[in-house]
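2024-03-11 09:14:02 INFO receiving multi-entity request
2024-03-11 09:14:02 INFO entity count = two
2024-03-11 09:14:03 INFO echoing inputs for audit
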Amino acid sequence: MATYEEIHGKRVNVLDSDPTLNSSYEGQVWYNSGSGTLKSVVAVQAWVSSSSLVGAARFALGSSGTQTASLSVGGELPGYTNAVEEYNGSGWSTSTNYPLSVQGPLVAGTQTAAVACGGNTHPPSVDRTETFEYDGSSWTSSGALPAGRRALNNSGFGSQTAAVQSGGLIPGGVQNTSNEYDGSSWTAGNTINTNRYVHAGAGTLTAGIISSGVGAATAYPSLTSVEEYDGTSFTAVNSMSVGKGATAGSNQAPQTSLIVFGGNSTPGSSINNTESYDGTNWTTQPNIASARQQLGGSGSSSSSGLAFAGYTTTQVATTEEYNSSINTITAAAWASGGNLNTGRRSGAGFGTQTAGAVAAGNTSAPGTSISSTSEEYNGTSWSEGNDMNTSRTNANAYGPQTAGNVVMGSEGTPAGSNKYETYDGTSYSNGPTTNQARFAPGACGTSTAGLAFGGYSDPGYTGGANLSEEYNGSAWAEGNNLNTGRYDVAGFGIQTAAVAVGGADAPAALSNVEHYDGTSWTNATALANPQRNMGACGVQTAGLIFSGNLNTGGGEAKTGLTQGYDGTTWSTRPSMSTSRIQVSPAHAGTSTSTFAAGGNVQNPVTNVTEEFTGETETANITTFSVS
Amino acid sequence: MAHFIYGVATNTGKGFFTAEDRRKFFLRGYPADVWMVGNNVDGAMWLAEKGASEKTKSEAQALIDAEVQAAQAAWDALSDEEKANPGNTRPVDITLP
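2024-03-11 09:21:47 INFO inference complete, emitting structure
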């Protein structure tokens, strides 16, 4: 038998431990003398689910960008939308609306420097010529297309100052014209070889590529044909294996390294096929999980893509990431946890996912039945603990399981409480009272540096308090007020870097968010929609909120929506399995590890728990066995 | 082929659905212990493993409607003081997508 050296001309490296891995190690082999094993690192291609769009499910949208900075423009709900959303690699957030409610616009460029044009508005049906440039926050009008075009979707390629539009659809038929954009105006280019629309584009103005799409009337075939562009002419090159119309791809990728995915097969069924292109040949890659057409797509290479929204048998908002990597990415998810012994809502949650606690709360819904009971969680099951000294509901809590803090709440009448109790992991002790009695406040911090803000301060539910108090381990002191009074507010962070999120100011829920720096509150990036009664945890630069009453415009409804916060931007995470309000969170948890216990799914209260685990990456190290 | 399948099963706690389950198929819980599951092999297998009583969409909707209507009736019977509490909002109708 030949040796490795005889085959490859090299000896195998002997290392004390596995090396720190990056993509340059792909395919390399080493001997780990510590474990006595022969190892290699391999790349794996896979689609993994990610967070859904913030807004409504949609299809026939415009899209561009990379996997970690993607842009979604317009689309059909049904009914055309002007909504714009941005993806940051973890979740979606809303941005400034497109000037038109449009289906099938072309988008080229990046999330912070894009150009969009064309598409169709209705009613009446108009194929648009308007062009707008996007700088990451606002849209500016630019030179119009020579003629209106619809069904452009993901077909554009290039940059904001050097983009290409090709094909498209008008009532007269499928087009073969092309146009180049120079940052201010469009100029007619040479025709493409195959008339097509809803095709995939990638590359640059001088090294571009278009593939797939739907061909000419009257058969409207899903195409396999591919054309490369050199800045002057389109040239037919090797075809794809599977015809696909209404497709998408990694359209910020170079001409020699890209993927195209999803779409429809003639006569229109959604497909999940993925193919990669290396500049010469197409290779079949793993399927996307959800077969869909008229989807959005982005990506920067054949190793990195993003598929989102589209039409399965109905419009969807789901997102999938494609990676060819030496790392396996495991998507974030909520899973069921142990059931509480006593179902409750508006309980005070503190601690972490594997060492948590829930105290007090309301064991009825509707109506009020306040509790003083307490339970501890070990990551698997809940066990009864000692009761609190004072029964209450709508308190808030913070700190770890062995140094918990429960502050304010309602003791049974529609008036607030000023009581504060600490928990040492065994029993509760009364601490100093707060200066103002309130219930449904936000709170965060530690036993020696606590913060409580907002809540109700009057029994008439006439409005939220803007009061804020700090605790130094021995007494509560008045701090500067919130800018917006609120109750049912979520809070996370520490005393000198806290976040107040949403809540309500009778009767409307709020989207407003404020930061506290230890001295004063300032307005920060608002939520996409008003929301109250959420669970929350984390720190100011890595926070998480989940569940609650959400108002997307049609009145409040219970939600399982989960959103992450990086100190500047809110973005979606995978939702809880069951929508609910008034959960008890693992308030000392992190943005990647927490729980939501109890709450109100529907009357009566629930005792179920869900646990959140964030996205992880692990290296694909293969250990060779000896036989 | 239907996009979702429906069943009734009680959430028994830890392990009832795992993070891996959530990555394999769509799962959403509703009142009356109704679960809406993505119509693929993994989703159907999960419903079977949980001993779920499979329902049509209209049957599942009827179960949810009954639970919501009972909750609405309970809310309607509250005192005005309890109704004024924003924490006791009247349950809204839920329509399966």
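2024-03-11 09:21:48 INFO post-check: Residues 272 and 291 of chain A are 4 Å apart (CA to CA).
2024-03-11 09:21:48 INFO post-check: The first strand of chain A starts at residue 13 and ends at 15.
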